[in-house]
UniProtKB/TrEMBL annotation, chains A, B:
Name of the protein in question: MarR family transcriptional regulator
PANTHER family the record matches: TRANSCRIPTIONAL REGULATOR, MARR FAMILY, TRANSCRIPTIONAL REGULATORY PROTEIN
Top-level taxonomic group: Bacteria
Residue ranges annotated for the HTH marR-type domain, each copy included: 12-147
GO biological process: response to stress
GO molecular-function term, one example from the UniProt record: DNA-binding transcription factor activity
InterPro entries: HTH_MarR-typ (IPR000835), MarR/SlyA-like (IPR039422), Tscrpt_reg_MarR-type_CS (IPR023187), WH-like_DNA-bd_sf (IPR036388), WH_DNA-bd_sf (IPR036390)
Source organism per UniProt: Rhizobium leguminosarum
Keyword terms: DNA-binding, Transcription, Transcription regulation
Pfam families, alphabetized: MarR_2
SUPFAM superfamilies membership: Winged helix' DNA-binding domain (SSF46785)
Amino acid sequence: MSEKTSNPSEAVTSAWTSIMRARERLLASIEADLKAASMPPLAWYDVLWELARSQDGKLRPYEIEERTLLAQYNLSRLIDRLEKEGLVRREAFAEDGRGRWVVMTDAGRKLRERMWAVYAKSIETHIGCKLAENEAKTIAGLLDRFL
Amino acid sequence: MSEKTSNPSEAVTSAWTSIMRARERLLASIEADLKAASMPPLAWYDVLWELARSQDGKLRPYEIEERTLLAQYNLSRLIDRLEKEGLVRREAFAEDGRGRWVVMTDAGRKLRERMWAVYAKSIETHIGCKLAENEAKTIAGLLDRFL
DNA sequence: TGACGATAGATGTAAATGCATCTAATATCG
DNA sequence: CGATATTAGATGCATTTACATCTATCGTCA
């Protein structure tokens, strides 16, 4: 009859708060490193990275949306900013008049690489240094259960 | 001589992206549940919870800041909103003219409890259901290394 | 075909956030 | 003591985000 859901255990609750806090702390550290290197925010990297790893350096907005988990309206405006900086450009999508391509420019590729140099070091410093290989795998394995 | 930091391993990088994505997804689900129940955002809960668990139901802003990882200027304005809703009130801190107390009101206590009913169920549904007890402990243990 | 609902993406407006800076009070140290 | 530095917290302003809605196009089905 009743939609009974038992309350979360102590361990589950503290797993959740650990996820929130770890992410908060780590993101702040990494963003700080990027900023210290005069780089744009991490969200820019995420989009550029999805484009870089795609087949032709171009994706539809909705594809980027799926891969980055950005909200549609946020992505739309993020693309505006990237475009304004010359890192991507929008092109028509012939097969569907509603669609667009987001195409990475050379400047976009270059910036992504420069960002990765900083970002990679930052990941290693803040995360890699504190985890054994198998621990990192454990984290990824368990957390991917939520995707 | 050189500040050599080796690049992060595949496993470390994917641990990081897993943290980001899991948090993103879970937070979105939980916030959606709260909103569906006409409740304020999770950040309100975090502050109210810190107040509720404190000795006298009151804390200094900087204490809340430390415990929630909110930025000082964000917290200051969040307290504005809470105060406007009658959930907390600011009081003078006698021992230091610069300081303030943030005092939880009865309405604040009540709301926190109502929020917890929703929040707890949400945690259990989205997280608890997908983790064994020892897995939850593993996550918390590993992620707390970053705090 | 043509009406209708669904989908891709953009956008106006309000709210929240980030950044820099400000005020007021306290601590430090010559 | 008095000048200076530091700390707690607030705030003006620009940027970003959330929410709702809009436009344009497409797919479906009578």
